[in-house]
Amino acid sequence: MAVLNQKPIKTSDAGFSLPELLVAMTITLVILGIASTLLATSFNVRTREHARVDSIADVQRAVNIMSREIAIGGYGFDSATNGLVVGDCDGSSIRVRSNLNRYSDNSTTIESAGEDVKYLVDSTNGQNYLVRHDNFASGNQSTVLANRIDSLTVVYLSSTNTTLDVAADPSQVANAVRVRITVGANLLADGRPGSPGYQPETTIQLTSEVALRNKSQSLSTF
After folding, report:
1. Contact between residue 62 and residue 145 where contact means Cβ atoms under 8 Å apart
2. What's the pLDDT band for 8 if we cut at 50, 70, 90?
């Protein structure tokens, strides 16, 4: 019987060469670097947006409370007045009085909670808080309405929409028909300067213009 000569089948068991591995690893590292940068940026942006939403919500709630209580200043008084306390209102704080019980129990005195309120910024441990101080509240008279506050600015406007200079003449407060309230809130920096997704410190401002309804000019208008 004839024996056939069979040649061995050659198989290639060779893998990636070292240069190919180095190129693949370099590309992988670049992709991972880009992905981590995008991820860090998105996390910082999300953190900043959450802080922004919380800060805006706090300030809006505080401004709404202020606007409501300041607007009814002078309610229940015998003569038409805006209820603002002369000598205790300036460009960074405002105090307002009203007789909320005048027509419910015929009270002629201001002695109940919510009838003598002052708004101001209180600085504690390097942080500013927007505070509502109630002179006749039982227990704790001061309530924090918003934190991370940068400033509170109060502008007093006359019936002709001109700004009253209450710093030079505090008695001008009694002539105010409207009050413009501006609250600035701080958003702290997020991350480190130069790092991916770094968000610098910024300040947002919310403004509300309040008509003092019990002032004589407001009563004649509305």
Report:
1. yes
2. low
* Confidence check: pLDDT of 78 > 90: no
126 has pLDDT over 90: no
CB atoms within 10 A of CB 199: 18
Do the beta carbons of residue 84 and residue 95 sit within 8 Å?
Answer: yes
Give 81's contacts (C-beta < 8 A, 6+ positions apart): 73, 74, 174, 214, 215, 216
Bridge partners, residue 202, by sequence: 187
Cα-based angle 103, 216, 131 (whole degrees, multiple of 5): 70
* C-alpha–C-alpha distance, residues 95 and 93, integer Å: 7
Residue with tokens 């990636």: 16
Residue 13, pLDDT score: 56
Cβ 82 vs Cβ 54: under 8 Å: no
Q: Count of CB atoms within 10 A of residue 192's CB?
A: 9
Query: 3-state DSSP helix/strand/coil percent for the chain, to nearest 5?
Result: 30, 25, 45
Q: What angle do CA 46, 48, 51 make, to 5 degrees?
A: 110
